[in-house]
Amino acid sequence: TMKNSVPQAASLLLEKLLLLVHVRALPAGSGGESSPPAAPSYYDTSCFKRGDLLEVPRTLFVHFGIYLGENRVAHLMPDILPALTGDRRQIERVVTNKRLILGVITKTASIRVDTVEDFAYGGSILVNHMDRLFEDQVLGSEEAARRAEKLVGATAYSLLWNNCEHFVTYCRYGAPVSFQTDKFCETVKMIIRDQRSVLASVLVGLASIVCLGLAPSTTLPTIFIPFFLWMAG
């Protein structure tokens, strides 16, 4: 019933929030450093063209990148390390979960260039799947690749305003858009509108504080929305 669906929706929402920032489970005993899974260990890059938009679908999210040619993909990843050091050898290592989560909390990221294997992390790859949504806005392949190359380096991170999907849609279509973020926001609105979702609202608020930072825009809704929903109930 509706009472059972609210906690389930809240749980799904929190899971999706973490997956949207590309948290990846690392193998046990890896010590936090990991290489991509062994299978598939090889991607046929001959079918990729410079400027292609690559998507790696996961269970609840999609990771995006722009193919630059020669087995190189530019993609945006939350990462604390570029804010702490200029050592390229350290920064270029595969981003661990610890680096990623700290990057989300501090709103720092990098647009980095990795191999297709490191980018896809063992997942299947879709090529230019979003072109159907931007029929008249697709830029030239070389223009898309050049835009991506110009942006490589440290950047600010925002789950809502500057994530990996914003990066690739700007490069290939000329405008930063994130359909994943839109769906997430609609889910948040749906839960908040339900008067019986006080607990869900608290969880969403706490997740927002963790991921988006401690600020009036996150803290005040966390306190007042559950209060007014409780009063209305």
Description:
The protein has 233 residues and is α+β, with helices and mostly antiparallel strands. The protein has 2 domains: 42-177, endopeptidase fold (from Nostoc punctiforme); 194-232. It is built from 9 helices and 6 strands, in the order αβββααβαβαβαααα. A hairpin with a 2-residue loop joins strand 2 and strand 3. Helix 1 (2-20) runs antiparallel to helix 7 (179-193), helix 5 crosses helix 6 (164-173) and helix 8 (198-212) runs antiparallel to helix 9 (216-232). The longest helix has 19 residues, at 2-20. Residues 25-41 and 226-233 have low confidence and may be disordered. Pfam families: LRAT.
In short:
The chain contains nine helices and six strands, in the order αβββααβαβαβαααα. It has 233 residues and is of the alpha+beta class.
